[in-house]
Write a structure and sequence with these properties.
By secondary structure, the chain is of the alpha/beta class. The protein folds into two domains: 141 residues, Nitrogenase molybdenum iron protein domain (Rossmann fold, 3-Layer(aba) Sandwich); 112 residues, Rossmann fold, CATH 3.40.50.1980. Strand 5, helix 7 and strand 6 form a beta-alpha-beta unit. Helix 2 packs across helix 6.
Length: 307
Amino acid sequence: MNRPWMIVVLVVAVAALAVATGFVAAGCGSAGDTGSGPQGALSAGAPSVIAETSFLADIAQNVAGDRLQVSSIAPIGSDPHSFEPTPQDAAKVAKADAVVMNSPGFEPPIDKLISGAGSKDLLVIDASAGLPGAQTDPHFWLDPTKVITYVDNIRAGFTKLDPDGADTYATNAAAYQQRLKELDGWIADRVATIPVSRRLLVTNHESFGRFAARYGFTVVGTILPSAETEAAPSAEGLVNLVKAIKASGAPAIFLETGNSPDLAEQLAREAGIKVITDLYTHSLGPGAMTYIDMMRWNVNHIVEALT
């Protein structure tokens, strides 16, 4: 039996908690270096490169190889939507020669940090340039075939930054793109083990649309009515979500790491399903310290929950 009044009470409580804590637990330190690409001793005076997020830094590092060291602005474990840059982060951007962004406008706090870098000649590399639909759903990276375009854009940016490394960047990019194609095939094979009728996703916010489109899932609904993790849910929207879950037979709600599970667990009790709380979407984390490992982690958890 639905109990909308309980959801209303919980929405009020969650809203209050969001004001006090930011709804998503963000990391409180400056970003450290990240990346799994081949690295050696950098030459003196090598350009300084930063990326918006840890997973994007890893992708970029695979292209950079041992010619550049890529670090991330938002630290591992943080949600870049709610990330609050520190003075140390501002100083890091001010010293950088290039920054790799997922899509300008997607992470306002980081966009502001970059725009505040002053008159410095900062090369901004838009990883998703050329991919349509960034305004409606910028979560391109949850489809590895879209990351192939990221790699092309990053390679072109690094070649502009460091022309002498053009051959290295081209070789590294081609090798990493092959790994992305292999990842895409692996995901398709894993998803094929899920009955078509159970390829149903209920998520915290609107982030899995591109993943769903690539691999044949249906997004039943989301707790937050936005692509941003700080959007506020409504009581009516949550009641309708419970109805949609029951009508579809979706077996689980998928929650990203760092998000409060309280609301998802309440909805799951109302709908009689389970909550999976440990997906990585906007950051690397324990057990998923590269972009490819992050995707494998997520897919394995989704498959296990739906089969």
